[in-house]
Design a protein that fits this description.
heterodimer; A: 301 residues; mainly alpha; 2 strands; 72% helix; 3% strand; B: 380 residues; alpha+beta; six-stranded mixed sheet; five-stranded antiparallel sheet; 8 helices; globular
């Protein structure tokens, strides 16, 4: 222990302090700023809100906390609708990801070890391209004279192009496509640890293969399912880019409302209030995810 | 080394041609790619037996067991259990249960739920399940741990739960894959005898896979020694130990000194073998069936060799001189490695019957001798 040790700085202390410092700088400070803005009045200025603290007279400092922004969110049904719709979209997307992702994760986990890495790479590969580009690519696939419509028409399956782009369908496709790896990876990590002999034991005791899956694999992969679902659900609730690009004008998502308030209406206080509410909405899910993660680590002993 | 059979089959149905075998394996083979894991194996196992498949890892014993359980489909051949063809019956419809080497206890269920699993699967009434599970847990002395999860149990306790789970369905045949492999030596010895008495009580036929010859000797009514996917010899533990049919079996089961030699005299009631390896002749008091001057091997167990510092009284055949090269004191007995003039090292064991035994020490000149009945002559 050198000079640093004498002033109470140790290697262990530094290692622990660094992530906290990071969180402080890039989460707590911005959060406090947003929280502050959400309680202020809107005004035509740069920045477009009034400070919370004001000198009144000579020696008194007044704190003006404005709850109007929050009250406004509950009076205009647009915001509650957007919240509800976001949760609905996120929920259905998570469900779709689960239905598609579970068999994929299961397949990878049961593949030959040599093949497994290739399959995993294929899941991760899309991350090498920007999300925006990949979502744009879907426009080319889904539009009226896009790839899918052209193929279907040339095969004679349909005679008029299907309207897919700018519909909820396109939005779901985009969200499920983009978030699928986030579900597959934790689920794979969970299934990969599974002792497949348990399935043989279940069959030995009278289970058909699907019963063994339902009674053994599914309950044992519960933590993987929850972790993967949270990783899809939490960001999907606040998703902005995909609904904006693929969803129609009716795709009312809270992320989009936030964007509009912030940039189009320059209503920073209201936008901040939306952000804070969104955070409050998601905190229980994040805590749940955390506890699942903790259980998973404890169970891996 | 014990030569008494631990198995409960007092009568010997395998010597009775009219006895009906309970499990019949007919010329079964299994190939993975171009690897023959099991090669043309036929077996007859009788009701109430503990039959041990003994062999080194990779000899095909586990594959054979898995075919009996229905987890592998034979490439060729048939399996009959209690007269019914089971070759293509999936595991969940076989009247057979398996105890896995890893125990494969369901980690998300407690002991009770693990044991009840198979019964629930068969839609047996709740009250009956409760009774049968309780009886079974009582039998394996795990009643006090019924609510524990597998990860809260010791290795020995898990082994008991696995055993209870595989026996509670009253299978016609119980397959055990290295049942005691994960236990430490003391616990293993203790559990071997428990397993035998449990099998005696329930009368279930056991087929046990093991690589541990001592375990096979203790448990088995009969042992099938496997090598390269084939059963090279099947018989009671004492038959396997005292009358091995080949060099491989003699060497694999217990330790043995093998002397290569050539038949010099081949009479109906004795043979004499000249062995360059021994530097002398070996006299064996029984005839063998081999062509004259054939190359044969005489196998002598270490405990059947007498060692003395003075020349034995009736010095004739089967006496050889050597120098003690190494001694291993094991408490109950000592192992001596004696180097002969030819360079061959012979293994001799002597029980330490006295606490102050006559000391034979390193580099001492000794005489080794054995009875004419002791060597087993094998031709392959």
């Amino acid at each position: 222990m050198g000079r640093l040790g004498r002033v109470g700085i140790t290697g262990r202390g530094l290692v622990v302090a660094l992530p906290y410092l990071w969180l402080l700088l890039f989460f707590v400070v911005p959060f406090v700023i947003v929280l502050k803005i959400s309680f202020s009045d809107v005004t035509l200025a740069i920045p477009p809100y009034k400070p919370l603290l004001e000198w009144v007279g000579k020696n008194s400092l007044a704190i003006k906390v404005n709850f109007d922004n929050y009250a406004f969110l509950f009076t205009d049904s647009l915001y509650l609708h957007a919240f509800a719709n976001s949760v609905k979209v996120a929920f259905l997307s998570t469900l779709a990801c689960l239905l598609i992702g579970y068999p994929m994760a299961y397949g990878i986990a049961r593949a030959k070890p040599s093949l497994r890495n290739v399959l995993l790479l294929l899941v991760i590969l899309p991350f090498w391209t920007s999300l925006l580009l990949r979502v744009y690519a879907w426009i080319g696939l889904l539009k009226a004279n896009g790839v899918i419509n052209n193929i279907l028409m040339s095969l004679g399956v349909i005679h008029e192009p299907l309207t897919m782009l700018y519909t909820p369908f396109a939005m779901y496709v985009g969200i499920v496509y983009s978030y699928l790896p986030f579900l597959i990876l934790p689920l794979y990590a969970n299934l990969e640890k599974m002792d497949w002999q348990l399935l043989e034991a279940a069959e030995d005791l009278g289970c058909r293969p699907w019963q063994a899956f339902y009674k053994i694999t599914l309950p044992l992969s519960r933590n993987g399912i929850l972790a993967g679902s949270m990783l899809v659900f939490i960001p999907a609730v606040g998703e902005f880019v995909i609904p904006a690009l693929l969803g129609g004008p009716n795709a009312l998502m809270i992320g989009r409302v936030l964007w509009d308030e912030f940039f189009s209406n320059r209503a920073w206080p209201v936008a901040s209030a939306v952000a804070i509410l969104l955070l409050i909405l998601l905190v229980p899910f994040m805590m749940w995810y955390q506890s699942v993660q903790a259980r998973e680590t404890a169970g891996a002993r | 080394m014990t030569t008494t059979s631990g198995g409960v089959v007092k009568a010997q149905p395998w010597n009775d041609p009219s006895a009906r075998p309970y499990v019949e394996v007919e010329r079964i083979s299994k190939t993975f790619g171009d690897f023959k894991a099991v090669n043309d194996v036929s077996l007859k196992i009788y009701k109430g037996e503990i039959f041990c498949l003994l062999g080194a890892s990779g000899c095909g014993k586990t594959t054979l067991l898995r075919m009996l359980g229905g987890f592998e489909t034979p490439t060729d051949g048939k399996i009959l259990i209690d007269g019914e063809d089971m070759t293509d019956v999936p595991p969940y419809e076989r009247p057979v249960n398996m105890m896995f080497q890893s125990y494969a206890l369901f980690p998300h269920m407690n002991v009770e739920q693990n044991v009840a699993f198979g019964l629930k699967q068969d839609r047996i009434p709740k009250s009956e399940i409760r009774d049968r599970v309780a009886t079974m847990l009582d039998l394996v002395k795990m009643s006090d741990f019924a609510k524990r999860k597998p990860h809260q149990l010791s290795g020995g306790q898990r082994q008991r739960v696995a055993l209870a789970r595989s026996l509670v369905k009253r299978p016609k045949l119980l397959l055990l894959d290295e049942p005691l492999g994960a236990l430490d030596k003391k616990l293993r010895e203790h559990t071997q005898f428990e397993l035998i008495s449990l099998q005696d009580k329930l009368g279930v036929t056991f087929i046990v896979v093991t690589h541990d010859q001592e375990e096979a000797m203790t448990l088995a009514s009969r042992i099938g020694v496997m090598n390269h996917g084939e059963i090279v010899q099947a018989g009671t533990p004492s038959e396997i130990y005292e009358f091995p049919s080949s060099k491989f079996v003699a060497d694999f089961v217990g330790s043995v000194n093998i002397f290569e030699g050539q038949l010099i005299e081949d009479e109906p009631d004795y043979v004499r073998i000249g062995s360059a390896e021994l530097g002398g002749t070996i006299y064996v008091s029984h005839g063998i069936s081999a062509p004259p001057e054939a190359i044969v091997w005489a196998a002598v167990r270490p405990e059947k060799i007498f060692m003395s510092t003075a020349p034995p009284q009736a010095a004739a055949d089967n006496v050889v001189r050597g120098t003690v090269q190494d001694i291993a004191y094991l408490g109950d007995l000592s192992i001596y490695l004696v180097r002969l003039a030819t360079g061959k090292v012979v293994r001799v064991t002597r029980p330490n019957t006295s606490r102050h035994a006559e000391a034979i020490s390193w580099d001492q000149q000794v005489y080794l001798s054995w009875d004419a009945t002791s060597p087993v002559v094998v031709t392959r």
